[in-house]
Specification:
- The structure holds two protein chains of two kinds.
- In chain A, helix 2 (15-30) runs antiparallel to helix 3.
- Chain A contains three helices and no strands.
- Chain A has helices at residues 2-8, 15-30, 34-65.
- By secondary structure, chain A is mainly α.
- By secondary structure, chain B is mostly helical.
- Chain B has one domain (15-156).
- Chain B is 47% helix and 3% strand.
- Chain B contains seven helices and two strands; from the N terminus they run E-H-H-H-H-H-H-H-E.
- Chain B has helices spanning 20-29, 33-37, 41-61, 79-83, 92-101, 119-127, 129-154; strands at residues 14-16, 180-182.
- The longest helix of chain B is centred in the last third of the chain and has 26 residues, at 129-154.
- The chains are: A mainly alpha, B mainly alpha.
- At the A-B interface, helix 2 and helix 3 of A face helix 3 and helix 7 of B.
Chain lengths: 66, 184
């Protein structure tokens, strides 16, 4: 319940435009054509979301035990 | 999520970077301008939209107060050099800083002016989380533009052989020179 509340917290959604922007720009610095850029951006975005999601879960678990 | 799918094949490309130094300068002055100069229109639009949207969203979150130049005993704004990576959109802060240091009144309605003594804590109180978020967004925009400047100067980064994601059928010959920049 607390986890869902934390997930739905308003502040966490500020990360979405950042992930979108960073992954697109990073993809564009690796490729020249639109499809490879989007492909790379998708992978970068997913990787960032998983990485930060993992940190989020770890911190949430730590806060649970403290 | 399908991380195992092969990336779309990219044909061999030769990119005319024109004068890379001029392109890099333009890219710094205004995100996307360097690529526009090089006639790389898609990337010009992509960089301009992504970087400027990030920057101005951050600036709006912070009500125009998160980008300012100050370096004194009370406030060392180390974030500003990173924000300056975005070029001209962050330049008014330098002008405001110079005006204030010479004892003048800030222009542009005080946009991007440095805080007066004791005012910074008030800004933090008023804006709360939005001050930090606005600072973060504008810093990231500046850092992203540094990537864009590098792309304008040297073309797309080419991965080390064997480390670049390639077609799984081992047909690397088509892929070898992809995105190869052509310098004058």
């Amino acid at each position: 319940m607390l986890f869902a509340a934390a997930l739905l917290a308003k502040q966490i959604w500020y990360i979405v435009p950042l992930i979108l922007s960073v992954s697109l720009v990073y993809g564009a610095t690796r490729h020249e054509l639109p499809r490879p850029i989007l492909y790379h951006a998708w992978h970068t975005g997913v990787w960032m979301a998983i990485f930060m999601g993992g940190i989020f879960v770890v911190l949430w678990l730590v806060s649970w035990w403290l | 999520m399908s991380t195992s799918a092969p990336p779309p094949a990219e044909p061999t490309l030769e990119i005319d970077l024109r004068d890379p130094h001029v392109a890099a300068l333009f890219a710094w002055l205004w995100p996307g301008a360097g690529h526009l100069y090089q006639r790389r229109y898609l990337k010009a639009v992509l960089f301009a939209v992504c970087i400027l949207a990030t920057y101005f969203f951050g600036l709006a979150l912070g009500e125009g107060k998160v980008v300012y130049a100050a370096w004194n005993s009370a406030d060392k704004r180390w974030q500003y050099p990173l924000q300056l990576g975005v070029g001209l959109p962050a330049a008014p802060a330098l002008v405001q800083s110079l005006i204030v240091r010479r004892g003048g009144d800030p222009i542009l309605g005080g946009l991007m002016r440095p805080p007066r003594p004791g005012e910074l804590s008030q800004w933090h109180r008023d804006l709360n989380l939005r001050f930090e978020l606005g600072t973060l967004y504008t810093m990231i925009a500046g850092l992203l533009n540094i990537l864009a400047i590098w792309d304008a100067y040297g073309g797309p980064v080419i991965g080390e052989p064997g480390k670049e994601r390639g077609p799984p059928d081992g047909d690397k010959s088509k892929d070898k020179d992809k995105d190869k920049p052509k310098t004058p």
